[in-house]
Write a structure and sequence with these properties.
The protein is of the alpha/beta class and 202 residues long. It has eleven helices and seven strands.
Length: 202
């Protein structure tokens, strides 16, 4: 019997589309791709998720490698959290689950300052019963230890839990640990899958 629903944040409950964001800041398409690689696919971006570096340290390191684009990188990183906007239909699912007395948890790779920002701006976090965020634990999906941290902290039984994530590698690990898993593609599909699990009646 399913008792717990575990959500990823990025591209499940919050839009995270850095290329679209960069297109609002930079007119040169080639430069958009370059900055995307330099910032959002950098080692420092992963280090921010792990909580092993501050945002300012990350900016300094990225800029030191890309001196000619330093000012542009700083512009991009200023208030980048604004690109994190709610996926309203998934938020509706989260709220409905809470109303049905399921336990909702989050398990997400996320930066400290970005997490502080979204939890202040959006009230849907009140529908969670708890969660594990990578920067706090110095652990990241798909490492098994971050899933185990969730299990141990909240006394969750994986067989009674559904894990929802938009990255297949993360759902594969969750399945190996005994969770039911849903690879998120969109909110409508998520609702259909939850009906299949008899979490929703329709």
């Amino acid at each position: 019997m399913i008792k717990n629903i575990i959500f990823d944040l990025g591209n499940v409950l919050l839009n995270f589309k850095p290329l679209e964001y960069l297109n609002t800041k930079i007119s040169d398409l080639e430069k958009v791709q370059q900055i995307y690689e330099e910032v959002f696919r950098s080692d420092e971006w992963l280090m921010l998720d792990r909580g092993s570096i501050t945002e300012q340290e990350a900016i300094n390191k990225i800029c030191s490698r890309n001196t000619e684009d330093g000012e542009l990188i700083k512009l991009v990183m200023h208030n980048w959290y604004l690109l994190l906007t709610p996926i309203k239909d998934t938020v509706k699912v989260l709220k409905e689950l809470k109303g049905l007395k399921y336990k909702n948890y989050l398990l997400s790779n996320f930066h400290l300052l970005a997490y502080e920002d979204v939890t202040k701006r959006y009230d849907f976090f009140k529908y969670f019963d708890g969660g594990i965020v990578s920067y706090k634990e110095k652990l990241m999906k798909p490492e098994k230890d971050i899933y185990k941290k969730l299990i141990e902290t909240f006394k969750i039984h994986p067989k009674e839990s559904i894990f929802i994530d938009d990255t297949e590698e993360n759902t594969v690990v969750a399945t190996k640990l005994g969770f039911e898993s849903i690879l998120f593609t969109n909110s409508l599909d998520l609702r259909k899958r939850l009906i299949e699990y008899k979490v929703f009646s329709q």
